[in-house]
Amino acid sequence: MAELRSIEMTSQLFEYIVAHGAHDPVYDEIRAETLRATGGSAGMQIGQDQFALLTLLTKLVGARFAIEVGTFTGTSAIAIAKGLAEGGKLFCCDISEEWTAIARHHWAAAGLADRIELRLGPALETINRLTPNPVLDLAFIDADKTGYLDYYEALLPRLRSGGLLIADNTLWSGRVADPDVNDEETKAIRLFNDRVAADDRCEAVILAIGDGVTLCLKT
Question: Buried b / exposed e across 159-171, counting CB within 10 Å, b at 16+?
């Protein structure tokens, strides 16, 4: 059995993490508006720690061209856009005009609207319409779970060598490791995780941050 080397996350510890480098007031503003718009639920948003991680990872790979599948109210888009190199562009795929209207407002307020291009419609259609150039440096998947594997297979060939694909919710509140849970979304994430782990086109690791974040470095 693998040795367990992690600590329990508590509210107190999470607040400490946020206070030591994971806090951005832009996140607070989007969070507040999303809570108002959804009647108090903003569960589809990434956490403040993930927000900071996305910006840092974008900078680390030197990303100029990125794509995200699943935009919601625009939190992750801002995190990625903040980290893009000069002249960079982020393509956002979503199907909701209602939620992305909130996103557009905050992109403009953050001074990042010129770095973000929203494309409404089924994500696979958007991906398939992308031209071969520019090659993507970074991709972020945080959308319908049953589509994860299709998005992965469509995006990985478009990433440059050394490019990074990131997927959210890959631990699915721990349900992926529970053999008694077999709903369609859980099975889809298990299939995605199995495919990534066996794929020799990339090196991958699942981080126990938020609801699970998978990093895939294309070789």
Answer: beeebbbbbbbbb
Q: How far is CA 193 from the centre of its chain?
A: 15
- Rg of the chain over Cα atoms, rounded to whole angstroms, equals 17
The whole-number pLDDT of residue 41 equals 66
Q: Over the stretch 9-23, which tens digit does the pLDDT of each residue have?
A: 999 999 999 889 878
Total-model pTM: 0.95
**Closest of 103, 190, 208 to residue 145, by C-alpha:** 190
What span, in angstroms and rounded, lies between the C-alpha atoms of 219 and 209? 24
Cα 162 to Cα 216: distance, rounded to the nearest angstrom: 10
Cis geometry, peptide bond prior to residue 134 (ω within 30 degrees of 0): yes
d(Cα 138, Cα 165) in Å, to the nearest integer?
Answer: 6
Please determine, for residue 1, whether its predicted confidence score (pLDDT) is greater than 70: no
